[in-house]
Amino acid sequence: MRILLIEDYTPLRESITEHLKDTGFAVDATPDGNEGLKFATSHKYDAIVLDLMVPGIDGLKILTELRKNGDETPIIITSALDSMENRVEGLNAGADDYLIKPFGLPELLARIQAQTRKVYGKRKATIEVGDLVVDLNSKRVTRGKREIVLTKREYGLLEYLTYRAGEIVSRQEIWEHVYQDAEGGSSNAVDVYVSYLRKKLNEGNEPNLLQTRRGQGYFLDPNDGT
Question: Which fold would CATH assign to domain 126-220?
Answer without folding.
Answer: Arc Repressor Mutant, subunit A (1.10.10)
